[in-house]
User: Fold these one by one.
Assistant:
Number 1:
Amino acid sequence: MRSRLLAIAAGLTLAAATQVVLAAPASAACGHDTHPDLYSGGGIYFQENGTYIRTGPHEGCTALGIGYASEGIDVHCVVYSEHTNWQVWFFVRDLDDGTAGWARRNDLRIPNTVTVPFCVQ
């Protein structure tokens, strides 16, 4: 019985350690950085009701501001974020107020087929 309790305790400790390890990259992915402007093709716009611009390519990252459809957008490059089930995120700059950061592809209007280069790591 004692060895069975020790095995259960060891399993719970391992499970707790695994959760900490899996949670750690999400916060690390929120560091604000910059990327070279690798795209100048146009055809990408903020949503009518606003698009969050974040410190990293993850919905849990801090919002720096909101870009609106009436404002210009400068798209720099794109990444697939493993922290959000491989969603596509664009590094953008709001041309009205200069806010630069990450916007989720689903939160942008992309009416034309465009090819945006991957961000340089």
Number 2:
Amino acid sequence: MRTRFSRNNSDALTVDLTPMIDMVFILLIFFLVTASFNKMNAIDIQRPDGATNDMQGAVSLVVSIDAKNGVWIEGEPVDIRKLRSRVKTLSGAHTSVMLNADRTVDTGRLIEVLDQVRLAGVDNVAVATAQQ
């Protein structure tokens, strides 16, 4: 006696995995696009302490000054005379720059770098500090 709901053993059940694989790739792309990457620690810098810490959401360019007064953009060394043109080429119209300076950097060097960044057309410039 056969029931209405019984199946033949010859009928194979197949599961289509294509929609699941598509969803996994979509989620992977979503997480890669929305992930924020930390660009601040490319160089070993001891930041000065600050009582206030203004956390910026999206910094588009990081300019670092190491303990030997060397200037770096995005982890690559740059001559101070070429800093303005490099900032212009790497920054957009409405950009922000984070100055990541070592605590032993001369104030004159910090002001020189700050001037070059502002002369490149960037008005939103902040100096990174360590939290106390």
Number 3:
Amino acid sequence: MPVAGPGGPGYDAVGLPARYGARLIDRAGGGGCVFAVDGWWWWIVPAGSDHGLRWPLPSHYAPGARVPGHRPRLIRGADGPSPYTPPILLYLMACQLTGSEPHWPVAAPGLRH
């Protein structure tokens, strides 16, 4: 997996079984790096992209992009200078593919909606 540069936000990864990955990558279009490892596809997202979100099962959130398995294979490289897939778009598409209801955190007291 990529190594974060100095001062960068770092990397996390969101994994889905390959049966979802192939469908998701078609819907996601361009974007960040995607790797395949042992029957799972992993999208690189900015560190902390799990804050306040419950990623739908069977997805797996991997802080520091530490994913189980051996020898990641690059499925898709980044379209630009950023290796990231936009996490909210990825989250919504993962919810749709898995038939899960998106769960948004409740706003902090005192904030207007």
